[in-house]
Amino acid sequence: MKYIILFEDTADADPNLRNTHMQEHLAFLERHADVIEAAGPLTDPAGKGRDGLWIVEAKEESRVEELIRMDPFWPTGLRASFSILPWTQVFRDGKRLINP
Questions:
Q1: What is the distance between the alpha carbons of residues 97 and 58, in angstroms, rounded to a whole number?
Q2: Phi and psi (nearest 5°) for 29?
Q3: Separation CA 65–CA 63 (nearest Å)
Q4: Is 38 helix (H, G, I), strand (E, B) or coil?
Q5: Which of 33, 46, 47, 80 has the greatest CB tally within 10 Å of its CB?
Q6: Phi-psi sector, 93: left (phi>0), alpha (psi -120 to 50), beta
């Protein structure tokens, strides 16, 4: 099953946390590329990176939560919370994936 994970950053987190831990975070994503299909920060109206989004393929939601808690960003205080949302992809690469 596919999941969308929305991360909310801590409003008063040190603005350097993301940059300080980015190399370790990217290495983590690379190690789990078989599950984490895409990841990246979102952008606020001023163009500043904040929060985050993952697209994950996993058999169980518990596996998704395990990955979130293993992410090097998690223990730093950068992330305030996350939402795990099951997602049904119906369109990709210009093609329908379902026939209603």
A1: 19
A2: -60, -40
A3: 5
A4: strand
A5: 80
A6: left
